[in-house]
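From the shared-data thread, chain only:
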Amino acid sequence: MHKFKRPLLLLLAACVLVFSLPAMPALAADRAMTYSQDAQGTVNLKITGLDPQSVVHGVQVEAVLDGGYQAGDIVLHPADPTAYSPSSATLVSQSGGKTVVNLYLVSEYALNNGETMDLGTLAANGLGIIPEKVRVGLVEDLESPPPSGQNPVAMMDMDLRGSGSSLGINIGSGYSVAAAPAEHGSCQVNPTAWQGQTVAVRVSPDQGYKVGSLTVAGAGGQAIAARDAGSGLWVFQMPASAVTVTANFVPEDQEGMPFTDVKPGDWFYSAVEFVYSRGMMAGTSATTFAPRTPTSRAMVVTILYRLDGSPQAGEAGFPDVAGNQWYTKAVAWASQNGIVKGYGDGRFGPQDNITREQMAAILHRYAQYKGLDLSASGDLSGFTDAGKVSGYAVEEMSWAVGAGLITGKDGNRLDPQGQASRSEAAAILMRFCQG
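Structure, as tokens:
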């Protein structure tokens, strides 16, 4: 451990909000600040590219945040609680929808471990937040406090680089996140997030109530899947549009789901309950699931993408899949792994209603991608419309029937080219996951 005199530490800790500490050039040319997020939306910050021979005792971070915050809203929690105390921000400026804050860390022990330094987790109002830009000053020599009123610390711009699950987040102009007013409880969100970011929502029911559902609506009312992360947090992946979060609170003793159009006697009730409770499919509103509404191709691919942990992906490769849509990464992932192939003319048709045979084909390829058993095979000849199955989908439909994923309709019809409704998609997905 590298130490300096404790009385000086106390003096610096008291003065650090007034002036910056003298810095030494402890950063290499490839310096960067990396950010990562876990499944609960917690944002972890780390500095890389330090001089491996340096011993850093002080850090000043100037962070530009997209959105309006009070200084007391922003806190940097230490990676090692024994090294230094949580640092509350001091406000530098606030204008144009941006908030600039300074955060200071001081310790008698070395804050770095060779070339890297774990700063800890950055939160706004207790929810993870990713800076838009950062400047950093590092201090090695704490034996000579700076003259009063001067600011000699050398602040350097740092590249922001994603790591882990945060790779691909677009740092720049964020999108707004709004929580709709709710009865019997409240939601708390940070007002801005980046495309691809895991956004955390803190949900607080009133006494005697619980969360019945939480829906996230993107552009045009597009439903974004959200899941319960526990401890009063729900999380979702931010699309390339503004979103509105709506929570529905119900009495604690109320049973069942909040959907008025899904009743216990419906054949799809258990399927909707399965996909809803696992965040695979959300409602179309706080009180409706729309079980008879068709399901789009993009939504089915996105559900599978989330089931697979939302891995990184490159370009989608389809002319009708733009680079900034809520489904872009999912389609790119599915295309690169052979799960979707698109139409003969090269299009994917993300907003087209998916057919039952298309869904069977996509699930078959997903099962193959996951290395699952594909030996099941059903006899299609017993269905009155077996001849309507497209040539490309015969093997896949046989597998789906043999595996019990797809069953016949009234009149012993397979209805291969009929649109798969949201309730049918829920049932097929439940059978797939349980199989």
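Residues 159 and 220 are 34 Å apart (CA to CA).
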